[in-house]
Amino acid sequence: RFRGKHHWIRSPLKAKPFREAISIIRTLATMSSGLVSSTKTWKALEAHAAEKLPHLKSLMEDKKRVDAMTASFEGMYLDYSRQCASAKTMELLFDLAQEAKVIEKFTAMAEGKKINTTEKRAVMHMALRSDPGDVYKVDGKDVVKPVHDVLAKIKAFSDKVRSGDWKGATGKKIKNVVAIGIGGSYLGAEFVAEALSTGPAAKGAAGRTLRFLANVDPVAVERALRGLSPDETIAVVISKTFTTAETMLNARTVRKWIVDALGEKAVPLHMIACSASPDKVKAFGINPDNMFTFWSWVGGRYSVSSAVGIMPLSLHYGFATAKEFLKGARSVDRHLLSAPPRKNLPLIMGLLGVWNSSFLGHATRAIACYAQGMLKFAPHIQQVDMESNGKRVSLEGIELPFQTGEINFGEPGTNGQHSFYQLFHQGRVVPIDFIGFVKSNHPINNTTTGEVVCNHDELMSNFFAQPDALAYGKDAAQLKSEGVPAELIPHKTFPGNRPSNMLLVDSCTPYTVGQMLALYEHRTGVQGFIWGINSFDQYGVELGKVLGKKVRKQLAESRTSGAQIKGFNPSTTRLLGKFLKGTTTESKL
After folding, report:
1. Catalytic (active site) residue 5
2. Can you give the pTM of this predicted structure?
């Protein structure tokens, strides 16, 4: 309680003193809590952001600056010179990383420290792609051997299926895989599967089909099973607890599809599991010997490097391809922990994300992959980044005085140009990551038949042009000199000064796909470590699930016994009524 002139609120007349007191308490709590926003470097960055930097069309003419704002690692080349940032900006950002102990926090993560403090768990997705000789421990126990034991089991099983030694209930070889999971149990694996669907790796999938079933919508089931024969299909049920509502309903639906065609005895031959719950797996009818485990220290959105992704990918492409993917991810893990700050790709990209969102106020970020095979990269990074960093409180539970996380979205290359680039050029400022490949996985050379450039060069012409168009823009003087009518000049003016990164990669291979996965996973970690949040829990997904159970119970009771709708607000009650009635049309009676 406060003593003296003002006391705790007892009437609306004393609300102002109360609010002032609470504001002071919050300010003191912020200062004493060690929030990054109270540091000297953060304050310096706020002041720096308030200064007006020259327009990008001027900054881009400074060769020394442009040369300094590049970094590379193996076959990846990052050019971040089109960011609205100067040498001073980068110095302050690197100072912020040092002050926030970003690399030290990654080291603690690699050492198995329980940095997921709310759930009291280690965060060890780096261990999933370890070499056998690497050292990763959780609670003092080695986790490298268990990881490689599971990988060896995956290799043995996938080899058996692919060779035809494992046969279905009718004696036919298995050539179709349906991976059943949701969220992190499918997004990463689907991204990798699509990225490798052309090029040398695709040869391993010749004559095979891999589909993913995530949405509980029955239409998703139909699409996943369309054209497949149960006797040539194996389903991989992916759920750590084997209780995920959507996954288990879909699994039971696919189980019925198998049983209806082949009988109950077929289930162990046509269904396997990636789980940590052998008893539930056995009760479902799956042989526990065909359960491929993963651990509590594997977060869902970081689990593509575990059995969650490696099992379906190995069945489809072969274990050697999956192993090469893990090797690529491992290379970036090591780069993150050892590269100097100014050459550290994940660190640089994460720092620029903080600069754009926390200091320049850009709430969104686009991923523009100029490669059709990367079409599922943006949806995967949506989950990795938004589920990780969409938080409102610090590790200590203090409400943050700044926003965290960005809204991530994207479409492949020229598709996006004809969809939302209008907004980029003349509407809101949206920082963009442009990703392109030097070599195409499916080169077509039409120059012999009269085309000016081959198809890949046409694609990459846009990759190189769009970042410059966004950076430079086009002003009224240029338009006037081109003879544009005066009344159209405002409509054809492009402000420019739109920030972007350009990531140029040699080719889209299992190795480089693994690298890009790890690059973006760690970029997300960099931002979370700077903001002082827990990037490894996801309580935000739970409230809707709880309310969903209440609705499910109501629907079941109303459909089976005509129970009256109750316990919901008037809007939900009305909507449920229309749904149960089977139409939204109002009666005319």
Report:
1. no
2. 0.92
